[in-house]
Specification:
alpha+beta, Beta-Lactamase, Helix Hairpins, 5 domains, six-stranded antiparallel sheet, five-stranded antiparallel sheet, 40% helix
């Protein structure tokens, strides 16, 4: 056996009497990397094959192993030695040993060596595990970091096997889709993908499998939420199937449903803006033509004897013009390019007066119940409110193809901090088919209709009317259980207009009127009508021409009649300049479309300016003139 020199691996040291055993052990272990030592029953080291780096083997011979053990581990060592002395065949022990430069970690095994049933010595086998423990600690730290990252990530993270089975899902995935861990784990991801997106996602899966280690991004596809709704998703997937430590496709998901919905709302707003511009441009020209048609038919009818066959045809022309005007007003209300024609009225009177029209709208197979016991004074656009009632009644009728009951109820709600004058609550209730959740979600979407041939403007117009009157609307409905539409409108305690203010009979006059209208045919027709009522008419075809006439003959002009929409200088701008010279100037603004509806309404607020909605009769214009002039 080699002498105890303490010069590195392969050397051994022994005390007297231990040579035979040491030689036997040396042949067994050779120059292996593990540490072997022999202790006497008291724990004194009698032989060691090698010592820790920087420690001479002979320096530890004859020392008690307890003295070489860190103080923090001595009690545990004594417990192990006591068990071995008591007969235990094998005991494990973990400890550390400080050396120059680092602290080494050891796993030890203590085995008794007996001679004739007596404990002769204790064999210690120690393995230095510093690197292994550091690797284990590093792996554990990496796992904890991954767990923290996965569990706190706001994005969903899932791991899939090669067939698309979910093998891991983080908390964000459970929250995003509403499923618990047991439901997601082991489930097929394909079952959660929207049917319309599956073909596209299979193509994506092929890309993922063909590009190991590379990320594949996918935008705007849908996953099924536990509540049955579809969530819009942006995702990134990386194929790590060939990485042994992962062995999965790692996918991250971000719920972009709200963003998609906002983008859709923006598209709808842009579409409404475009349609509004188109509707406004068409309405301006169309209402000019309708005014000519209506006024010409009325004038021709006044010249035809009462028993003349053409009189009925002229009446039909006038009615057709009125119907065409209602369609135009519906488009303008929808696009919010109609100037509100504000007046004071009682909503109860409008609802009760609506009853006869309601019967024609809903038919004989629908019973009607109207309850409006309270006076509901308000200020608003009576035509828009009537349109609201008509649209709601029409929708209710369409929801009851087999008949049913339509209830229209209105009541006063007491004043509150939000509505100091109180509110009118209007309910339109039907016993019809109702609607499912998907239809309810799109109820106010422009051009959405469940009826073949429907325009899809009914409820969007209702919503715009309610918002224009600073009100609110709520709709309650379930499939097969009818629908309740509840509208709240602010009340305003103002006396209703007198019959003198609301009359439409023509009153003769002798004053000079400045008429500004760019459409030649309409300008000539209106000038002829006003002259027929005794007025002197100064006619202009543009805002600039009208302003020049006013500057030249302003002292003669009692009142201005002006179209709102004019080329170059608008009617609003021309009238504003005229009022600088004469603040008390009175005017009638003719409107069928106003790009700046709010500005026109504000200009008319002082009550010296009247708004007259096209189309209209010459007698209606004359009545407005007379009211304004007489009020001066």
């Amino acid at each position: 056996m080699p002498e105890c020199s303490g010069e590195g691996p392969g050397r051994a040291a022994s005390a007297d009497g231990a040579a035979p055993l040491a030689a036997e052990l040396w042949r067994a272990v050779g120059a292996g990397p593990d540490y072997l030592a022999v202790l006497n029953p008291s724990g004194v080291i009698t032989w060691i094959n090698r010592a820790a780096p920087g420690v001479l083997p002979e320096s530890v011979l004859g020392q008690n192993v307890r003295d070489l053990t860190p103080e923090s581990r001595r009690a545990a060592l004594e417990e192990v030695l006591d068990k071995v002395r008591a007969g235990s065949a094998h005991e494990a022990f973990e400890t550390h040993f400080p050396t120059p430069g680092e602290v080494l970690e050891f796993d030890c095994r203590f085995l008794p060596v007996r001679h004739q049933a007596e404990l002769a010595s204790i064999l210690v086998h120690a393995r230095e595990v510093t690197a292994a423990r550091r690797a284990t600690a590093s792996l554990r730290a990496n796992e904890e970091r991954f767990r923290a990252l996965a569990e706190t990530s706001p994005d969903a993270i899932c791991l899939f096997d090669a067939t698309g089975i979910i093998r891991f899902a983080n908390p964000a995935a459970h929250h995003m889709l509403g499923y618990d861990a047991e439901t997601l784990f082991g489930a097929s991801g394909w079952k959660l993908i929207h049917p319309d997106d599956r073909e596209r996602m299979r193509e994506v899966q092929a890309q993922i499998h063909a590009r190991p280690g590379q990320s594949v991004e996918v935008s705007r596809w849908r996953l099924l939420h536990q509540d049955g709704r579809w969530r819009w998703i942006d995702s990134t997937a990386t194929n790590l199937l060939d990485l042994p430590s992962v062995g999965a496709v790692v996918s991250t998901y971000r719920d972009v449903t709200q963003r998609v919905e906002l983008e859709e709302q923006l598209r709808q707003a842009q579409k409404m803006e475009a349609i509004g511009l188109l509707a406004g441009g068409v309405a301006h020209d169309f209402n000019n033509l309708l005014t000519v048609i209506l006024a010409s038919a009325d004038h021709a009818r006044s010249l035809v004897p009462a028993d003349h066959p053409a009189r009925e045809d002229l009446q039909g022309i006038a009615q057709a013009a009125r119907s065409a005007s209602e369609l135009t007003q519906k488009l303008l209300t929808f696009s919010r390019r109609q100037v509100p024609m504000l007046s004071a009225f009682d909503l109860r009177d409008e609802i009760q007066g609506f009853g006869s029209l309601l019967r024609r709208v809903v038919g004989e197979d629908v019973s009607i119940e109207i309850e409006a016991p309270d006076s509901l004074p308000m200020e608003g656009d009576r035509g828009q409110i009537q349109q609201l009632l008509l649209n709601l009644a029409t929708n209710a009728r369409q929801a009851m193809p087999g008949g049913g009951t339509l209830r229209v109820r209105a009541r006063r709600i007491d004043p509150s901090s939000q509505s100091p004058s109180g509110q009118a609550e209007l309910e339109v209730i039907d016993t019809g088919l109702g609607m499912d959740e998907a239809t309810h979600a799109r109820l106010f979407e422009p051009f959405f209709s469940t009826r073949p041939g429907g325009t899809g403007l009914g409820m969007p117009v209702v919503l715009n009317v309610v918002q224009d009157h600073q009100g609110s609307i709520a709709v309650e409905s379930q499939a097969g259980q009818g629908t309740t539409v509840r509208v709240l409108l602010p009340l305003r305690e103002r006396p209703a207009a007198s019959q003198g203010q609301r009359r439409h009979d023509a009153v003769m006059g002798t004053e000079t009127v400045l008429l500004v209208e760019d459409e030649v045919l309409l300008r000539e027709l209106l000038a002829r009508a006003l002259r027929a009522f005794g007025y002197t008419v100064l006619a202009a075809g543009s805002g600039e021409e009208g302003l020049a006439l006013f500057e030249q003959q302003g002292a003669r002009i009692a009142l201005v009649v002006m179209d709102v929409v004019l080329p170059k200088m608008s009617g609003k701008e021309a009238l504003s300049r005229m009022k600088v010279a004469r603040p008390d100037l009175r005017a009638v603004l003719m409107t069928g479309y106003a790009p700046d509806a709010a500005g026109v309404a504000e200009l008319a607020a002082p009550r010296r300016i009247a708004l007259l909605q096209k189309p209209f009769l010459g007698a209606e214009l004359a009545a407005e003139l007379r009211d304004l002039i007489d009020a001066a």
